[in-house]
Design goal:
The protein is α+β, with helices and mostly antiparallel strands. The chain contains eleven helices and seven strands.
């Protein structure tokens, strides 16, 4: 049985060195286990050669096994392999007990021989069973360790991917932030440009009004000048009558002077109103709506636009038709903004009829009579302002684009393309609508609808 003891010792030593990686992790113990390994091989060889003739070989095998049990039990470095101690302990105990009885109590041993063989057999079965169980446990443990290793590797990969994604997200965030800042700067520039374009459009419309304003303001100034001259003559006459003592004539002259002063005051206020209207048109909207006579506003801009065009082109002439609903009263609007819209629509109408007249005359047709009609009407809780002309109308192919910014059918340099776009925005800001009725070749009508 010494052969079995030594083979078990050799296998245990080999297992410990391999499993615990003593050559790398426990170099001092590796040397000891290597020595035990070679001692076990030497004892095994000696037992095979000498057999039972040498007694110490038997006890040498026991010593090797007992040493291995000792280090497995007492040394913490071998704690992971203590399951093997449980496996071999019964075998070592039984074998040692049997050999002691056999050597020192031989007669007693002979009475227990059958029991001793059974105990050894049980110990061997226990050893094999525990080794098989340990082997399975080792495989399961190895599998679990491999699984954990894979999970750790996966976790490392996940962490690495996460870090890469965080870097990418940070880079993308920085890029988006930069793009946002660039877009904000671009938006600011566009808003500044838009403000300049809007102001340019306002100044352009004011320029179109200038000649008309000059014409309109000339009439009251002529009245003021004429009545002032008359009053000067009347005052001279009144002085003569005072010297003559003709006080009845003086009173009559004083009454005439007072009447003329009222007329001067009336026409002076008319000139003042025209100048104020021009200033109001040129400055930015206050944002405060005020009651406004829509019909009067439309009529004023119709006359200003007409005289403005007449001043630039003496050959220009057009019939103006008006139909104002006097029941409308006043409507709460921003007068300078609504005025710009009406002016833009009327100016476009005059431009359209002038173009058609020029084309007809070039074709030798002088029968065409340019006509622009402006009307107001109250319908329920809505007020309607209509500007119609009998010009060429709007080409059907561009009808859907007329309210787009910078779109114009006028030649380069004659229009910014902002007039209708700004007009549309202004009417929308008043919770209204701007519609168009069009017959290509026959004319167009723009209709403003506002809350009453």
């Amino acid at each position: 049985m010494i052969v079995v003891d030594l083979i078990i010792a050799i296998l245990i030593v080999r297992y410990l060195r391999k499993t615990l990686q003593t050559a790398v992790l426990l170099p001092a113990w590796d040397k000891i286990l290597t020595g035990v390994f070679f001692i076990s091989i030497g004892l095994l060889a000696a037992d095979i050669f000498f057999g039972r003739r040498v007694l110490f070989l038997q006890w040498g095998g026991h010593a090797v096994l007992l040493f291995l049990l000792y280090i497995l039990y007492s040394k913490k470095e071998f704690k992971p392999a203590r399951s093997y101690m449980i496996a071999i302990f019964p075998y070592v105990l039984v074998r040692l007990t049997v050999d002691i009885l056999k050597t020192f109590f031989n007669s007693f041993y002979n009475t227990l021989n059958n029991y001793a063989d059974a105990a050894i057999l049980f110990a061997v079965i226990w050893l094999i069973a525990m080794l098989v169980i340990n082997k399975k446990q080792q495989k399961a443990l190895a599998k679990e360790q491999e699984k954990r290793k894979q999970e750790e590797e996966q976790n490392k990969i996940t962490v690495l991917i996460k870090e890469q994604l965080e870097v990418q997200v940070a880079e993308r965030t920085a890029e988006l932030t930069k793009q946002k800042e660039e877009l904000q700067n671009t938006l600011h520039e566009l808003q500044s440009t838009q403000s300049l374009l809007i102001q340019s459009e306002k100044m352009a419309s004011l320029g179109e009004l200038t000649a008309g304003i000059a014409h309109e303001i000339q009439n009251p100034l002529n009245f003021v000048n004429n009545f002032s001259e008359v009053n000067t003559e009347l005052i001279a006459e009144m002085k003569d009558e005072i010297e003559k003592g003709n006080f009845e004539e003086v009173k009559a002259l004083a009454n005439d002077i007072a009447d003329n002063e009222q007329k001067i005051n009336h026409h002076g206020k008319r000139a003042d109103a025209i100048v104020k209207g021009m200033l109001q048109h040129s400055r930015s909207s206050s944002g405060q709506k005020e009651p406004t006579n829509i019909s009067a506003l439309a009529d004023e801009y119709l006359r200003l636009a007409y005289h403005g065009l007449r001043a630039k082109d003496k050959s220009f002439n057009a019939a103006m038709k008006t139909d104002y609903d006097q029941t409308i009263g006043t409507v709460n609007v921003l007068p300078q903004d609504i005025g710009r819209v009406i002016l833009n629509l009327i100016t476009n109408a005059f431009y359209s009829v002038q173009q058609k007249k020029t084309l007809r005359q070039a074709q030798g047709d002088n029968s065409y009579e340019p006509t622009v009609a402006v009307s107001t009407k109250k319908t329920g809780d809505k007020v309607q302002i209509k500007v119609a002309d009998n010009g060429n109308g709007i080409p059907q192919s561009v009808l859907d684009k007329i309210f787009q910014p910078f779109f114009t059918t006028k030649p380069t340099g004659q229009g910014t393309g902002l007039g209708l776009s700004l007009s549309y925005d202004i009417i929308k800001a008043h919770s209204g609508e701007l519609k168009v009725e069009n017959k290509e070749g026959e004319g167009a009508a723009f209709i403003i609808i506002l809350p009453a």
